[in-house]
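Recall the central idea of this unit: under ordinary conditions, the amino acid sequence of a chain determines the structure it adopts. In this exercise we apply that idea directly, starting from the sequence alone.
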Amino acid sequence: MGYDTKFLLSLYRKMLLIRQFEERVKYLFLEGVMPGTIHQYQGQEAIAVGVCSALNSDDVITSTHRPHGHALAKGLTVESLMHELFGKTTGCCRGKGGSMHVGDLEKGMVPAIAIVAGGVPIATGIALAFRYRKEPRVAVSFMGDGAVNEGAFHEAVNMGAIWSLPVVYVVENNLYSASTPIFEMVRLKRLSDRAAGYGIPSVTVDGNDVLEVFETARKAIERARGGEGPTLVECMTYRITGHSRRDPCNYQPEEERKEALKKEPLRRFTEYLLTGGFIDEAGLEGIRAEVDAEIERAVESAMAAPDPKPEAALEDVFI
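Accordingly, the structure predicted from this sequence is:
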């Protein structure tokens, strides 16, 4: 398909924003400035951006313990996200969610669920609600490769299938569940083949190609919105950062990692834009400067924002 330059540069900016946000957050943690813990998204940006760019603003996503990329791709502001990571009352979840539970229902993102596969039944339930209300909306469940071995995955996907619900299941296969290689957990060469057990279509795509992800997601979302039911989309990718902030990735073979860095999505898409004549180096540098400035403003405002009062822990509690 032919794409206009404005759309392509919007994809690039979103991917760059996620990458630079994660890099800045990484150093804030290493410097001891930011509290809590983090599970980061470097290397998987094309999936969040490709899928969310195919969604309408009122469609809804569920996320995982690695949610920053999904949040930024779905439209949460850098400021609201950064404030949340600093535990401030001005954060997207009033400082009560932290890194693994960011979200904003007004932006179409359920606060992330850190339990592996925990978001799959939630997305299925949201899709069921859309069906009952006769709303032409779609739910998307992002999950890692480890989620396909959880009971919640099987039950939820089966329910979505038998009722032909408007939901898309997106598996981000980065080859490792924490430090365990995927080939030690399943005998399938393609996790998308699991869909055959539920009678729904599936596809495995290059998760480092943002345009391939976008086109695949667009078709699956249109299919779901049109009443034809779920699709399982497996996106092959690679995590070029640790599972969490204390992970040096010693389990990743050196050659495998080198090859992955050559194929990582931001580098590939940058080359595509340059060789295609959509932008030059000066234009790219201008976007980078804008993104970095936006992130720095968010860091400064987050550090200056008020901390929650102790009694705030008693609010928003349901018994």
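The first helix runs from residue 5 to 30.
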